[in-house]
Amino acid sequence: MSRKRDNPADAGKEEDLHLDLREQVARLYEDMHDEEDVEADDEERGMKSSLILVFRKRCKNESRTRNEAESESRARVSRIYADFFGAAWEESTCRFTDEPIPWSSFQDKGKMLICPSHPDDPFSRLEIDTTLSGFGPGDVQVLQALYKALAYGPKLSYFTGDAKFAMRNLDFKMPGIENIIFGDCQSGKSAEAAFAAWCSIFLLGCLPVILVRNKGGKTQGSADMVKALKRMNERVQEVLGESFPSVDPKRFLMTILETDDAVRDHLGRKGPVTAALVMLNNPPKVRKLMELCSLRSRSPYFRATIESERRPDCTWTVRYERTGEEEDVREQDMFVWVKKRKQQPEAGTLRKGKVVHARMSEGLRRQPSVFDDLFEHGGLKDGRLRALFVVDEGDQAVGAPCRNSTVGDRLHFHNPAKTGSKVRNEMGAQKGAHGYAFGSIMVTATPAACLLCSFPVRTCGLCMKHLEAGKPAIKVNCERDHMYHRECMEIFFSEDPERRAAFHCRSCETAAERRRDANKQAQESDEDSGGDQEGGADGGGADTETDDEGGGDDSMDKSADLTSDDEDAEIELHLMCEEEDCEEVIVSNDVHSLTTKIARTDRPDNYVSYPEFMLPGDKCVVIERVETEERERKSMTLYEAYKSIWLGKCPNTVEAQGTEADWDEMVTRAIGGEAQTLFSANFTLKRQRKGVFVSASRRINKDDTPVLDKNIYVLAKEIKERCTRRGVTPFDVDRNGISRMINSMLEPNSGSFRHALISSQNTTTLEQQKSLRGDILFRWKNEVLAVVTYNYKGIVVKFTAKSVEERSDLVQRAVETARDVYVQDAIEKDKEKVANGTPGRKDHRRIAEDQIIATVDIDSGVWDGFSCRFPEIGIAYETLKKLDCTCSVTIAGAIGGRGVSYHDLENETVLTDMYSAIDVMVGKTPTAHGEQQIQMLGRLNTIIKPGVVAPRFRLWAPKSLHDLHIAYINQVLSFTTSVQKMGNLREALEAEPRHLACGGVVVFNQLQESKQPLLRFSRNNFSGKRRLGDRGPKGAKRKVELSLPREIQLPIRPYEVIESPAGAFAQLDVVWPQAFGSQEEWDSVTREEYLWEEGEDDGFDENQHVVFRVSVPGGESDGERLQEGFRAAGDLGFKFLSMPGGNGGMQRAEFKTREAAFDFLKSGVLGEGETQLWRELINSTRFD
After folding, report:
1. CA 1053 to CA 1084: how far, in whole Å?
2. In a 3-state reduction of DSSP, which class is residue 227?
3. CA distances from 425 to 332, 375, 383, 419, 420 (A)
4. Among residues 1174, 1124, 736, which one has the least CA distance to residue 956?
5. What average pLDDT does range 1119-1128 have in this prediction?
């Protein structure tokens, strides 16, 4: 600013001169900047001479206007030039000593920028707005230092490496911009939202409204966000303590509020506004922001003070303490408290000054919306209310491309607010809550839904405010028919009458300029890192209308102006418009004003990441991909049943008739038209339209048909029925992968802790979770393991039988520990209330005792774990950590697939393993779309706390799921990068190839070509069935080869045993009672009658019941060791024989049940290697 004048009366004139001259110089800079055909040297010389000319003209005008000597005017104007150009201007000689400063520096001259030392970052170049905080110049310097330390220093204290906040790359030059923070799962996005909230309050001068997801937000999302805000306050205090120890840190901290009433109270009091509102993103909550609402009270009676004497009509004037409003109330509409009871006041007891409870009228009970209070307190910022939406899991806040399919969509992006008259008069009717707010930030790991938008948008290129539907506007004759407000065009022509004859379209200029900046930024990014890491083209502010044919997006109102190539940009710059060609039009309906900017977050070095998400230079801990067997097919055909019998895979029927190669050769001949005989003339392999099939003779049920053929025919039908996945348990579906993961976790020296998560299509319901938990507890009952189920009803932790046996007080200690953990955590959350002198409102100890209780195993009646009605998974992991339980498996459904962090309260024990799988079938679209897969498998991502030894992190899944996950990651990275660089969704989307799922041809269906369905990019509303997310260039496809489901394993019946695993010495056999003839002649019902069941009155007789025998080669010393393990079977192991002979002899153990024999084989007495083989085989076998 200019120097102080001796005469105070001249201060206003001096200020006006300063502003007028600055505007004149700025216009000159803009005109010179637009002349692109001027060489660099000519531009410098032209600028200097033009500035001198402006200086001389202004001096003459000032001398003539003020009637003073020209030397005085020259001195005055020279002082202002010295302020503009610094050392480049010599005030005494009135001449340039150096080249004038660049345009970018002149733009920022005299402004209090957020961070002048980083002018390349969009947010750092903004001017600090202290409207809400009320800070002075000294405080602004503290804010600048604070922001620099927070934005360019370590993100959080427990982050390692050079990760910085993404806020520095967001764009708020214009109101209404929808910024997207694109961060990996569990990489600190809550911290990003918290920092954005702090910047909104103290730097942008806007109230941050943090919206957390509606599903799961109440149980964990809100608590996590509040915790992140508190950590940000602690970080601010830490920086202030180091750099500004004398400054009161409380003035720079956020006030965390969780209700709209609390925000109203905060806005209603005098002083600075430092509030950050955290609320669920659902329609009732959003309505309270933008609509008038009633005072929050169950009763219409409010505490008030009588302000007048009694009137003849028995009314009194009262003032309500809650609102400060006065009104007349009838005497019968008041009551007083007498000895803790309310009663009507007696005659003559009321008087002026007495405190009563009066019935408030409906009119006074209706209070203004948060938007109204915010307008009263801070007015508008660039034509918008001082509010900034920070939407956690922002992709879930969008329901459809048109953003009007749900109530929430319409409130956010379509419906006008029902505010008071002041806001309506100033802003008119806007499109949704986002149309009133200054800006918004979507924070998500899957931003596709935020970018897939199809509604048209228009913005005035002069004032950068949106054009309202149904209102008049001026359309200029440019390449893109841009529109402007009528008032803006009038001001535009009045500023320079020469523009009426010829002028450049400002929207086209903005588009071309931003296109150049985007290309330059992309080139610099490519040179620095080989790829566009952080940002790209941020779209401009020009107006654009897009068709609704599935092509528009949030960024279209500016980014569509960037659709032209460089040549088009040059044409637009040189195309001159005239006032005569401008025409007045009416803005079409359903237009919006929404622009988009994407910024990807940095990953700290101690972040656990999938390699596909990492960029060059990242030093994250990498998640290993472990491939497990594919899921079995859902059903078996008769063709496959006959094939399994022919290959000898079904015992007690026929011997193998050939190999797989022999079968394939027969299939080939059958396709050629030559029928093939299988077991006998009663079974023929024939050709049909879609492949081949097995035909059974019509004589198969005749009396003269051989018994063996009848048995084969019956067995094939039985196998088909048994192998159809009806009523199959979740464990049976994924038994191989789950068994491999758990067995790996139980290996010695596998890590200081191993905690796993199972989340798949078969863990979505409560019954599925209970079933899977029971199977794991049964199959690994001889191991030390905890199994946790996590759903909306709460958390249940169960311990295996061995865990309870080794520690008799385990369950009791677990319950007490869990209660202590909850109480301590609740007290920490209530510290602010305790500090304010309001403790004891909740008895946390009593709540813990009611909600955390021990559980009992129904079958055995033994205490086996505890249940917790609070669905906060951190309590369970903290309890397990304090109990030294280092191995656990958590089973979660939909609630645990997004926004949930599986670690203890101190982040010291984290997930190390995860198993997931989906059904993959040839010719059918995978059931899980891209966003769902990235979010669900992102639960394995985490931050390793410094000092914690990093274990191995592994994703256990079939190859098909790994391939899908990688394809989805590449999809979202490619799409977001294209949007950043191109600036236009339509071009970015059409540049992306269509991802197709490819698989081999099913064996029994050789003649049918497998279909290639689309891999769904997002939810059904956005992708699939020719929706917006399916667009792509003609002919450009990217195929993802998916592994086929494996053949169904034939279930083992209760009277059957499994063959010994390869490399094992022990052998398991079933011995049938010989007194009842040959067992081959028995049917399945007869066989099951001879299985012994524990608890029968008749007891067990080895001559009448089935015996399960384990034979192990070994000598006398081996026999002693094996006999000790045999005794553990109790009454179920009834005979142990040691038989000497060749090669050291044979040890034989006989059991009443197959499960007892399995327990013996898995007990560990056979040695580590042999035991591991049997464990893997038994746990991965499918039993009937």
Report:
1. 9
2. helix
3. 40, 12, 12, 10, 9
4. 736
5. 79
Helices of type H across 647-727:
660-671, 707-722
Q: Is the model's pLDDT at 590 over the cut of 80? A: no
For 829-862, the DSSP string reads: HTHHHHHTT---SS-HHHHHHHHEEEEE-TTT--
Closest CA to 121 of 158, 152, 87: 152
- Do 603 and 165 meet the contact criterion of CB atoms below 8 Å apart? no
Q: What is the pLDDT of residues 441-484, one digit of tens each?
A: 999 999 988 888 776 667 788 877 767 766 788 888 877 778 88
CA distances from 398 to 406, 410, 554, 973, 1019 (A): 9, 10, 11, 20, 11
Environment class of 855 (CB within 10 Å of its CB; exposed 0-12, middle 13-18, buried 19+):
middle
Which of 545, 515, 543, 451 lies closest to 985 in space, CA to CA? Answer: 451
> Can you spell out the DSSP letters for 720-772?
HHHTS-SS--HHHHTHHHHHHHHHHHTSTTS-S-EEEEE-SGGGSSHHHHHHH
Indicate the DSSP class of residue 613. G
Would you call 541 exposed, middle or buried from its count of C-beta atoms within 10 A (0-12, 13-18, 19+)?
A: buried
Please give the structure tokens belonging to residue 903: 């670690």
Question: At CA 832, angle to CA 826 and CA 837, rounded to 5?
Answer: 105
How many of the other CB atoms lie within 10 Å of CB of 962?
Answer: 19
As a residue count, the chain comes to: 1184
Residue 976 near residue 985, CB atoms below 8 Å: no
Does the pLDDT at position 545 exceed 60? Answer: no
d(CA 258, CA 251) in angstroms, rounded, equals 20
Tokens (6 digits) for 1128:
């553990």
Contact between 1119 and 1147 under an 8 Å Cβ cutoff? The reply is: yes
User: Across 1076-1131, where does the E strand assignment appear?
Assistant: 1107-1113
Provide the residue type at 987 as one letter.
E
Q: Coil, helix or strand for 932?
A: helix
DSSP 1053: P
CA distances from 445 to 215, 413, 581, 991, 1032 (A): 17, 22, 47, 22, 23
326-330 and 315-320: which strand pairing? antiparallel
In the structure encoding, which two tokens stand for residue 210, read together? 């943090």
Going by C-alpha positions, the residue among 320, 328, 316, 317 that lies closest to residue 301 is 320
Residue 380 bridge partners (DSSP)? 385
Would you state the structure tokens that stand for residue 501, as one six-digit string? 């004859």
Q: How far is CA 837 from CA 266, 830, 840, in A?
A: 19, 11, 9
Q: Which residues contact 878 (CB under 8 A, 6 or more apart)?
A: 821, 904, 905, 906
Query: Which of 1108, 1109, 1091 has the alpha carbon at shortest distance from 1100?
Result: 1091
DSSP of 331-396: GGGEEEEETTEEEPPPTT---TT-EEEEE--HHHHEE--HHHHHHHHH-EETTEEEEEEEEETGGG
Query: Which of 1031, 977, 975, 1016 has the alpha carbon at shortest distance from 454?
Result: 1031
264-314 pLDDT tens trace? 888 888 888 999 999 988 888 888 888 776 666 667 888 899 999 888 888
Higher pLDDT pick, 780 / 1049: 780
Alpha-carbon separation of residue 382 from 130, 413, 984 (angstroms):
14, 19, 25
- Burial of 873 from C-beta contacts in 10 A (0-12 / 13-18 / 19+): buried
295-304, 410-419, 899-908: segment of lowest average pLDDT: 295-304
Report the chain's C-alpha Rg in angstroms.
38
* Identity at 952, one-letter amino acid code: R
Which residues are CB-neighbours of 387 under 8 A, at least 6 positions away? 206, 207, 208, 209, 289, 371, 374, 436, 437, 438
Pair type for strands 355-359 and 583-586: unpaired
